[in-house]
Specification:
Largest sheet: 2 strands, parallel
Order of helices and strands: HHEHHEHH
Helix content: 40-55%
Strand order of the largest sheet: 1-2
Number of strands: 2
Length: 93
């Protein structure tokens, strides 16, 4: 099973020091690059993000351009758009 997460779930679990719950539920999760970038911003608010950085079961991916992703970027933030559009089936030429 492919599990793709947006920022909210990972961020909330890191804040309450329970990121390990995702590991118990899933062998690995995928987060798009934009989500990872948003998660790195948490450290500017004093939140310890070491659990994210060192989680070898979290895979960061750069999504390929696709029509759906381009459409979603208009109404969603970059992380949400990339998470919803993953995996892309309709690559833009």
């Amino acid at each position: 099973m492919i599990v793709v997460s947006d920022t909210t779930t990972v961020s909330a679990l890191v804040r309450v020091e329970r990121l390990w719950l995702l590991k118990q539920l899933f062998d690995n999760i995928i987060i798009p690059q934009a989500v990872y970038t948003e998660l790195l911003e948490l450290q500017h608010f004093g939140i310890d993000i070491q659990a994210i950085i060192f989680a070898d079961w979290i895979e960061v991916t750069e999504p390929a351009p696709c029509t759906l992703l381009n459409e979603l970027k208009v109404v969603l933030d970059p992380g949400e758009a990339q998470a919803v559009a993953f995996p892309n089936h309709e690559a833009t030429e």
